[in-house]
Amino acid sequence: VAAAVDAWGRGAAALPKPWRPQQPVLPVEGMRNVLITSALPYVNNVPHLGNIIGCVLSADAFARYCRLRNWNTLYVCGTDEYGTATETKAVEEGLTPREICDKYHAVHADIYRWFHISFDYFGRTTTAQQTAISQDIFQRLLARGFVLQDTVQQLHCAGCQRFLADRFVEGICPFCAFQEARGDQCDKCGKLINAVELKAPRCKLCGDSPAVRPTRHLFLDLPKVSVPRCWTGGEGALSCPRDVTVCCPQLEERLQPWLERCWATGNWTANARYITRSWIRDGLRPRCITRDLQWGTPVPLDGFRDKVFYVWFDAPIGYLSITANYTEHWERWWKNPQQ
Question: Pairing between strand 287-288 and 290-291?
Fold first, then answer.
């Protein structure tokens, strides 16, 4: 309080000069560099006040605070545009997925401008940079043996003549009997679900009852994934001379104590704690990272080129690719823990 009174008495003339970052905003040696991202809003709707509050307002307030503190600040966001929900919306409106994304990206951008949200850059995930970075990450995982192939039983709709991705299916939750469970998760009990486990499944596109048929998919082998103790970011981790599966602990082994620290010191929501605990309690399992869709990042592997990456493998990479569309020096923000 005394410091505030003193600063107030000295007046605005005594304040430090406002920091004017270079364009594009890049980390500066010797300064506090802050990268802020908002959760990427999904593109298939018109954002309302609740979306603003839940998605961008807190980050915008923090970005303004950081700039007032003269911290070198970059605030990016963008629309999340791939996945089943876009295809579903396109069917509803009689448009192509690309037309849906173009339409609603413009709507989102206009609304955030109207609210004066102070993004340095507002991008989108349907870009060449998104494809390049996502496929590069996939190729690195594949080269290190962290991707496996498996045949899975999947729901196929004869009426639509297609395999149905998770969100094209609804039905009764096998755990809690919720009537409108999705094909990947029940929003009532939080349990992860395979679509074939749903009771009385129905196709969201035509309403028919799909049949179970086999199909091949790619999985991220989470039980096998190891985290190098020597990892510090950048390329150093990729040139480790030893076999990381031998010298480094598995992800689950390091994730548990990290989560315990975060739960004790952070402000996680009750829902986030519950879902995360259920994943750890049940043990990490291989997670499917491909889908039988047309709208998504193509899978660069023979035998799977008719598939795309699952949006939850692909969408978080959007933070990187949006920054990459803002500046070609994006790695100085994302691979630069020293600054």
Answer: unpaired
